Amino acid sequence: MKLGILTISDKGSRGEREDRSGKAIQEIMSQQGFEIAEYKIVPDEPELIKKYLIEWSNKGLELILTTGGTGFAPRDQTPEATREVIEREAPGISEAIRFYGLQKTPRAMLSRGVAGIRKKTLIINLPGSEKAVRESLSAILPALAHGIEILRKIVKEC
Q: What is the pLDDT of residue 158?
């Protein structure tokens, strides 16, 4: 399955911060058999976020994982940009991420990430920290491939 990783970070896009969360996604998802087809770091600009989500889903990527821009800071606009491009929400994924995170820290409730479907691409917003990315992927990986297979009509039933 082909994966796109979109890191949303003003500092990261300017080269002022290493993208550890994006690298963690690459590491974990490669081990799960995903091909990293796209990877980009962009500033917290909704139009840029939407541009890549649309472009990559139009290319037919099975999965797009974003990292960053899901908190309370005024520049955190990833969920809003994602909602503008998805056709159907998948709230259970974001709920699972927050529920799992709450077992580790009460701050997990502050994540505003969303998940949804555009065409045949699943798009999931992950938090911006490496630790939170690792925890979030632990929460959703057991069901992720099956959900994508259903979306892609590879399997017909649960």
A: 62
pTM over 0.90: yes
Q: Which residues, at least 6 apart from 108, have a Cβ–Cβ distance to it below 8 Å?
A: 97, 98, 100, 101, 102, 132
Q: What is the DSSP letter of 45?
A: -
For the chain, strand residue ranges (E) read: 2-8, 35-42, 63-67, 88-89, 115-118, 121-126
> In terms of CATH, what superfamily is 2-151?
MoaB/Mog-like domain (3.40.980.10)
Residue at 139: amino acid letter: A
Residue 27's contacts (CB-CB under 8 Å, 6 or more residues apart) are none
